[in-house]
Amino acid sequence: MPCNLNAICYIDQHNETLGKSSFVVTAVGIVSSQHQNTNIFIHIIAFYPKDVTRDCDLERFKKGDIIRVQGRFSIIETEVEESKIKLIKMVASDICVLNLNEEDLPKSSLSVVLVGTASDNSEVNDDKITLNLNAREYIDNQNNKSLLFNLYHFPNDTHLSPITTKVSRGSSLYVTGYLSLIGELLLIRLTQINFIENTYSSSYKSSNFAWEKKQADNSTPSTLVQSTPSAFDIAKSLLEKPNKKRVKQATTPLNSLKIPKLSSLASPQSSANNEDETLHEKEIQSEISNEENKQEKEEQIVQTPTKPKRGRKTK
């Protein structure tokens, strides 16, 4: 099920290789997160066709640029100076170079769109509503596992609660929100949510009467008007919850994260991984070649004039 990401990042490292029918660009981007006091790293992969006449939504970029990038993504774990960190690996579908200098890199959100399945019923508390979502996006042979996202919003987000309070295990959901990587959590503050199928109770009806709306407003505790908890506060409360399935892992302090090297991300860690990467590159090149062959055949069909039928002329 798809996982899509939109981000603004500074290009710290850049490399370009020549494939059979495309240029393959790999890069490391740095996001100045609006929701957490740390930088987030993105391993970007972009494919550019050799044929300049082909349409391409990927603007060419270089080291030192600030870009807006969109594409499918997954979360991977890598080692930097003997410390494990999480970073985002994505295949770009749209790139736009922004006219900004390095010192002007804005704080921004990691905006995500996910389609997945709820792993359990939603949990409604006085300070927040939480639920877990399983989603998967194929990036390569090594990064094809399902990811567990921790979704949340606050009770005063009244446009979300009619859906989130009805979520049950197995519900198919479409969600949008802002992603934070905090410890072992993939935390998302919801901005939109909807059922893909009608899996919620049909007895639920939205209120259209003024007195019912007033009663609902009056029943909201005044404490909710206080300052909104940060993503770190939400993550802390979720990590403190007892969970038999969760395995505690040693994580690197957020303020001491090192920038991952592009060479270590590109090079496999074992010979088995090397074979898988080579196979994946061949699969990608094969797909690109197939698309080019289809386009050439379509062009030939369009350009070839139809021959007149042979036969006797009628008077």
- How many structurally independent domains? 2
**Residues in β-strands, percent:** 35-45%
CATH homologous group name of the largest domain: Nucleic acid-binding proteins
Order of helical and strand elements: EEEEEEEEEHEEHHHH
Q: Quote the distance from N terminus to C terminus.
A: 65 Å
| CATH architectural designation of the largest domain | Beta Barrel
Cα Rg: 24 Å
Specify the structural class.
alpha+beta
Just give the CATH class of the largest domain.
Mainly Beta
Number of strands: 11
Tell me, rounded to a whole number, the average pLDDT.
80
Q: Regions with pLDDT < 50 over 5+ consecutive residues? A: 267-277
Q: Any idea of the CATH topology of the largest domain? A: OB fold (Dihydrolipoamide Acetyltransferase, E2P)
Helix content: 10-25%
Write structural notes for this entry:
Strands 1, 2, 3, 4, 5, 6, 7, 8, 9, 10 and 11 form an eleven-stranded mixed sheet that branches. The protein has helices spanning 161-164, 210-218, 231-240, 262-266, 271-303; strands at 3-18, 22-32, 39-49, 66-80, 83-98, 110-118, 123-124, 129-135, 147-153, 172-182, 185-195. A hairpin with a 2-residue loop joins strand 10 and strand 11. It is an alpha+beta fold and 315 residues long. The model is unreliable at 267-277 (pLDDT under 50).
Write a brief structural summary:
The protein is α+β, with helices and mostly antiparallel strands.
Features:
315 residues; 11-stranded mixed β-sheet; alpha+beta; elongated; OB fold (Dihydrolipoamide Acetyltransferase, E2P); single chain
